From TrEMBL:
GO terms for molecular function: kinase activity. Belongs to the cytidylate kinase family. Type 1 subfamily. The keyword Nucleotide-binding applies. InterPro entries: Cytidylate_kin, Cytidylate_kinase_dom, P-loop_NTPase. Keywords: ATP-binding, Kinase, Nucleotide-binding, Transferase. It catalyses: dCMP + ATP = dCDP + ADP; CMP + ATP = CDP + ADP. It comes from the Bacteria. This is (d)CMP kinase. NCBIfam families: cmk (TIGR00017). Residues 2-203 form the Cytidylate kinase domain. It is an enzyme of class 2 (transferase).
Length: 209
Protein backbone atom coordinates (compact mmCIF):
# COMPACT_ATOMS: atom_id res chain seq x y z
CA UNK A 1 0.00 0.00 0.00
CA UNK A 2 1.07 3.61 -0.51
CA UNK A 3 0.67 6.80 1.51
CA UNK A 4 1.37 10.04 -0.36
CA UNK A 5 0.67 13.64 0.57
CA UNK A 6 1.87 17.19 0.87
CA UNK A 7 4.83 18.21 3.02
CA UNK A 8 4.29 17.97 6.79
CA UNK A 9 0.91 16.26 6.37
CA UNK A 10 1.93 13.47 8.75
CA UNK A 11 2.93 10.85 6.17
CA UNK A 12 5.77 9.36 8.20
CA UNK A 13 3.93 9.21 11.52
CA UNK A 14 0.81 7.76 9.90
CA UNK A 15 2.79 5.25 7.85
CA UNK A 16 4.68 4.10 10.92
CA UNK A 17 1.45 3.64 12.88
CA UNK A 18 -0.25 1.78 10.05
CA UNK A 19 2.80 -0.42 9.51
CA UNK A 20 2.95 -1.32 13.20
CA UNK A 21 -0.75 -2.15 13.21
CA UNK A 22 -0.34 -4.40 10.17
CA UNK A 23 2.94 -5.92 11.35
CA UNK A 24 4.91 -4.87 8.25
CA UNK A 25 7.71 -2.32 7.62
CA UNK A 26 7.24 1.01 5.95
CA UNK A 27 9.47 2.67 3.36
CA UNK A 28 10.26 6.37 3.59
CA UNK A 29 11.19 7.79 0.20
CA UNK A 30 11.52 11.21 1.81
CA UNK A 31 14.51 10.13 3.88
CA UNK A 32 16.33 9.06 0.72
CA UNK A 33 15.68 12.44 -0.93
CA UNK A 34 16.93 14.06 2.24
CA UNK A 35 20.05 11.88 2.22
CA UNK A 36 20.74 12.95 -1.37
CA UNK A 37 20.33 16.57 -0.28
CA UNK A 38 22.69 16.12 2.66
CA UNK A 39 25.39 14.57 0.49
CA UNK A 40 25.09 17.34 -2.10
CA UNK A 41 25.37 19.98 0.61
CA UNK A 42 28.36 18.28 2.20
CA UNK A 43 30.06 18.10 -1.21
CA UNK A 44 29.20 21.78 -1.86
CA UNK A 45 27.38 20.74 -5.04
CA UNK A 46 24.94 23.00 -6.86
CA UNK A 47 21.56 21.50 -5.90
CA UNK A 48 20.20 22.25 -9.38
CA UNK A 49 23.11 20.49 -11.10
CA UNK A 50 21.96 16.92 -11.59
CA UNK A 51 25.40 15.69 -12.65
CA UNK A 52 27.03 17.09 -9.52
CA UNK A 53 24.33 15.66 -7.27
CA UNK A 54 24.53 12.21 -8.86
CA UNK A 55 28.32 12.33 -8.51
CA UNK A 56 27.86 12.98 -4.79
CA UNK A 57 25.48 10.02 -4.55
CA UNK A 58 27.98 7.83 -6.38
CA UNK A 59 30.61 8.44 -3.72
CA UNK A 60 28.22 7.99 -0.77
CA UNK A 61 26.48 4.60 -0.95
CA UNK A 62 23.54 4.41 1.43
CA UNK A 63 21.26 1.76 2.91
CA UNK A 64 17.65 2.34 3.91
CA UNK A 65 16.64 0.33 6.98
CA UNK A 66 12.83 -0.05 6.68
CA UNK A 67 11.51 -0.55 10.20
CA UNK A 68 7.87 -0.15 11.20
CA UNK A 69 8.76 2.17 14.07
CA UNK A 70 10.82 4.49 11.86
CA UNK A 71 13.23 4.26 8.96
CA UNK A 72 16.93 4.90 9.30
CA UNK A 73 19.48 5.72 6.61
CA UNK A 74 23.03 4.45 6.90
CA UNK A 75 26.24 5.34 5.10
CA UNK A 76 28.54 2.48 6.01
CA UNK A 77 28.53 2.73 9.83
CA UNK A 78 27.26 6.32 9.97
CA UNK A 79 23.62 6.79 10.95
CA UNK A 80 22.52 9.77 8.87
CA UNK A 81 18.97 9.86 10.23
CA UNK A 82 19.39 12.58 12.91
CA UNK A 83 20.90 14.96 10.33
CA UNK A 84 18.17 14.52 7.71
CA UNK A 85 15.59 16.82 9.31
CA UNK A 86 17.82 19.88 9.69
CA UNK A 87 16.66 23.25 8.41
CA UNK A 88 19.30 23.33 5.67
CA UNK A 89 18.10 19.97 4.34
CA UNK A 90 14.49 21.22 4.56
CA UNK A 91 15.39 24.17 2.36
CA UNK A 92 17.23 22.11 -0.25
CA UNK A 93 15.22 18.92 -0.61
CA UNK A 94 12.62 20.30 -3.04
CA UNK A 95 15.35 21.32 -5.50
CA UNK A 96 16.85 17.83 -5.27
CA UNK A 97 13.53 15.99 -5.55
CA UNK A 98 12.67 17.40 -8.99
CA UNK A 99 15.86 16.05 -10.59
CA UNK A 100 14.90 13.00 -12.74
CA UNK A 101 18.17 11.22 -12.02
CA UNK A 102 17.73 11.56 -8.27
CA UNK A 103 14.13 10.38 -8.48
CA UNK A 104 15.28 7.33 -10.44
CA UNK A 105 17.94 6.64 -7.80
CA UNK A 106 15.41 6.85 -4.96
CA UNK A 107 12.88 4.69 -6.78
CA UNK A 108 15.48 2.02 -7.45
CA UNK A 109 16.37 1.87 -3.74
CA UNK A 110 12.70 1.43 -2.86
CA UNK A 111 11.94 -1.20 -5.47
CA UNK A 112 14.72 -3.42 -4.12
CA UNK A 113 12.74 -3.99 -0.90
CA UNK A 114 10.47 -7.08 -1.03
CA UNK A 115 6.79 -6.56 -0.14
CA UNK A 116 4.63 -6.37 1.88
CA UNK A 117 5.27 -2.84 3.13
CA UNK A 118 3.73 0.61 3.46
CA UNK A 119 5.43 2.91 0.93
CA UNK A 120 5.39 6.52 2.10
CA UNK A 121 6.31 9.62 0.14
CA UNK A 122 5.72 11.70 -2.96
CA UNK A 123 4.36 9.98 -6.09
CA UNK A 124 4.42 6.54 -4.48
CA UNK A 125 0.95 5.69 -5.77
CA UNK A 126 1.28 7.45 -9.12
CA UNK A 127 4.78 6.54 -10.25
CA UNK A 128 6.80 4.27 -8.00
CA UNK A 129 4.17 1.66 -7.09
CA UNK A 130 1.26 2.41 -9.45
CA UNK A 131 -0.15 -1.11 -9.07
CA UNK A 132 -0.38 -0.96 -5.28
CA UNK A 133 -3.72 -2.19 -3.99
CA UNK A 134 -4.62 0.42 -1.37
CA UNK A 135 -3.54 4.04 -1.89
CA UNK A 136 -4.00 7.03 0.41
CA UNK A 137 -3.21 10.74 0.07
CA UNK A 138 -2.89 13.00 3.13
CA UNK A 139 -3.50 16.73 3.05
CA UNK A 140 -4.07 19.65 5.43
CA UNK A 141 -3.94 23.43 5.26
CA UNK A 142 -0.50 25.09 5.38
CA UNK A 143 -1.39 26.64 8.75
CA UNK A 144 -2.27 23.33 10.34
CA UNK A 145 0.88 21.75 9.01
CA UNK A 146 3.01 24.69 10.20
CA UNK A 147 1.64 24.43 13.73
CA UNK A 148 2.41 20.73 13.82
CA UNK A 149 5.94 21.24 12.57
CA UNK A 150 6.52 24.07 15.07
CA UNK A 151 5.89 21.56 17.86
CA UNK A 152 8.88 19.58 16.60
CA UNK A 153 11.26 22.49 15.98
CA UNK A 154 11.89 25.84 17.69
CA UNK A 155 10.83 27.94 14.69
CA UNK A 156 8.20 30.60 14.08
CA UNK A 157 4.84 29.29 12.82
CA UNK A 158 4.48 32.08 10.24
CA UNK A 159 7.93 31.36 8.81
CA UNK A 160 7.22 27.64 8.66
CA UNK A 161 3.88 28.27 6.93
CA UNK A 162 5.52 30.49 4.31
CA UNK A 163 8.18 27.83 3.69
CA UNK A 164 5.51 25.13 3.34
CA UNK A 165 3.57 27.21 0.81
CA UNK A 166 6.74 27.62 -1.25
CA UNK A 167 7.41 23.89 -0.90
CA UNK A 168 3.87 23.08 -2.09
CA UNK A 169 4.44 25.20 -5.19
CA UNK A 170 7.74 23.45 -5.94
CA UNK A 171 6.29 20.00 -5.31
CA UNK A 172 2.98 20.47 -7.13
CA UNK A 173 3.85 18.13 -10.02
CA UNK A 174 5.03 15.38 -7.69
CA UNK A 175 2.36 15.64 -5.05
CA UNK A 176 -0.87 15.03 -6.99
CA UNK A 177 -2.93 12.14 -5.62
CA UNK A 178 -3.38 8.99 -7.69
CA UNK A 179 -6.76 8.73 -9.38
CA UNK A 180 -7.64 5.73 -7.19
CA UNK A 181 -6.26 7.13 -3.91
CA UNK A 182 -8.40 7.83 -0.86
CA UNK A 183 -7.82 11.50 0.08
CA UNK A 184 -7.80 12.23 3.83
CA UNK A 185 -7.83 15.75 5.28
CA UNK A 186 -5.75 15.31 8.44
CA UNK A 187 -6.56 18.82 9.72
CA UNK A 188 -9.49 17.90 12.00
CA UNK A 189 -7.99 14.58 13.08
CA UNK A 190 -5.33 13.55 15.56
CA UNK A 191 -2.72 10.94 14.64
CA UNK A 192 -4.77 7.99 15.88
CA UNK A 193 -7.75 9.26 13.92
CA UNK A 194 -5.82 9.36 10.66
CA UNK A 195 -4.31 5.92 11.28
CA UNK A 196 -7.80 4.59 11.98
CA UNK A 197 -9.13 6.01 8.70
CA UNK A 198 -6.28 4.40 6.76
CA UNK A 199 -6.74 1.02 8.45
CA UNK A 200 -10.49 1.18 7.76
CA UNK A 201 -9.69 1.87 4.12
CA UNK A 202 -7.33 -1.11 4.02
CA UNK A 203 -10.09 -3.32 5.43
CA UNK A 204 -12.55 -2.07 2.80
CA UNK A 205 -10.03 -2.75 0.07
CA UNK A 206 -9.42 -6.28 1.35
CA UNK A 207 -13.17 -6.86 1.45
CA UNK A 208 -13.43 -5.73 -2.16
CA UNK A 209 -15.63 -2.75 -1.42
Amino acid sequence: MTIDGVAASGKSSVSSGVARALGIPYLSSGLLYRAATLFALEDHADLSDQGAVLAALGTHPVRLEPLAEGNRVWQNGRDLTPELHSTRVDHGVSAIAVLPGVRAWVNEQLRQVPPPFVAEGRDMGTNVFPHAGAKFYLTASPRVRARRRAQERPEDVDAIEAALIRRDDLDRVQSAPAADAVVIDTGPLDLDGVIGKVLAGVQRHRAGQ
